[in-house]
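Explain this fold:

***
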Amino acid sequence: MKTISNPTRNKWEKLAQRPLIKQQRLMKLVEKMFYNIHRKGDKAVLEYSRKHDFAGQTSLEVEQGTISQAIDQVPQQLKQAIELAVKNVTAFHLSQREEVRKVETSPGVTCWRESRPIERVGIYIPGGTAPLFSTVVMLGVPAKLAGCQEIILCTPPNEEGVIHPAILYAANLVGVTRVFAVGGIQAIGAMTFGTESIPTVNKIFGPGNQYVMAAKRSAQYYGVAIDMPAGPSELLVIADWSCNPSFVAADLLSQAEHGPDSQVILLSDDKRVVKEVIKEIDLQIEQLPRKELAKQAMKNSKAILFKTLEECMSFSNFYAPEHLILATEFPTLLGRDVVSAGSVFLGNYSPESAGDYASGTNHTLPTSGHAKAYSGVSLDSFVKKITFQYITDEGIKSIGTAVETMAEAEELHGHKNAMTLRLASVTKASLTTASIDSLLEEGATPERKAVEGTGEETTEQAITKAAERTAEEKVEERRPENDQNETE
C-alpha cells in the first residue's frame, strides 16, 4: 500500500483513479460476443461458457432436481445464517414501500404516483473466484417484495460444471423462478437478446468484474435497463486516533480479497494511525486463504495522510466510494458531511462485511465514482413509478388558461387546442347552468314550491335528465354495431 502525505488538490484526480482495463479493447470484445449471441442464441452462449467456465457444458438451465439436491448439501448453520439475512433484508426493504399520496395541485386537479413491478428481471450472481450467494439475497428479496413476476438468475458454474449449493439454496428461498448456469459477458448478452433457453429481461441487476460491467453498459444500447454501474469492489476508510488499527486493516483486506482489480483507500489525519494500520495489514494478509488476490489489489491501493478530518471527507466525496467506513471519534457528526458514497458504516463496530451479509442494507452499490449520481439497489430499483392525474371541469378552469398561454408561447398549437376545446365546453356548460338557475330563481319558484316534497321532478331535474338521455343516445350512435357503413 503506497503512502501519500498531504497531496495538493490538483493531484486528487490521479489519486482517485481506479485500475481499469483499456475500455476500447473491452467494448470491442463485448460487441463481438453480443453479435454472436444475437445471431446464434444458445449455441454461442454454450461455446463461450465451455471456453471460459465448464468445458463439458451441454445445457444452460439448472433443473429443479439439481436445485433440490443442492439444498440438501447446505449445512444447517449456513441455512440459518442465510435465513437471518433474508429476514433483515426483508425488514429493511419493506420499510421502503411508499403510500399513495394524492395531491390537489389546483382546485379540481389531483395528481399522484403509483408503483408497478418490473415484470421480468435478470439477476447476475458472480461465482468465479467466490460464490456470492449473499447477492442472491440482496437482489432476490426486493424483487419478490416488489412483485416481479419472473426473476431470472444467471451464475457461472465452476470447472466441474457445479454451481455452489448455497447459491441454489438462496435462490430457492427468495423465490427465483429460473436459474441458468452461465456467467460473464455471455450471461448478460443472453438476458439482453434472449435465446432458445434464456428469456430476455426488462432490467439486469448485479455486480461483476469489468467484463460484466462493460456488458451491462452495452445492454442499455439494446433496450435493456441496468441497475447501475457496479464493477470491482472498493472501500474507503477515514480513521482518526480513536480507531482500532487492527479493525481498520481487517476492513481494508475484506475488500482487497475480492479480486486483483479491487481498490481500498485509507485516509487519516494521524501519521501514527497510518503506520499502525499498514503494520496490521502486513500481519493479517498472510493469514488469508486469498492472500495472493489481496496482495494484487493492495498494489492499486493507497494510504493518504491529510491535515484534518475535513480534508479527508472532502477527498472521500471527490472519490465517491462504494463503501465508506468512518472509524472516528464522532462518526455520526462526520457522517453529516457525506455527499457521495454507496453505503456508510459508522464507528469502530460497523464493519463493511455486516452490510455485505446480514445487517439489512443492500450491498449492490455503485462503484468507480458513480456514487456521485447513482444510489444502491433498493425496492424502488424493481418498480416503475407511474404518475396519474384526474382533472375535473373545475380543474380545467383552474389551469386551462395557463396551459393555453404556455403552449402558444412554445408554438405548439395542437397542445393549445386540446385545452381550448375543453375550456370552451366547460364555459358553455357553466353559462347554461347559470341561465337555468337564473330562470328558476326568477320565474319557476312557485313550480318548485309546488312539487317540493311530492316526489315530482323540478324543472332543473328534468333538464338534467334530458341532457343525460342525449349523451346516452350519442354514445349509442357511436357503437360499432350501429354503424350502417360497416361491411358485413
In short: The radius of gyration is 31 Å. The CA atoms of residues 119 and 149 lie 5 Å apart. Confidence is low (pLDDT under 50) at residues 445-454. The chain has three domains: 2-18+232-360, 23-230+380-386, 392-472.
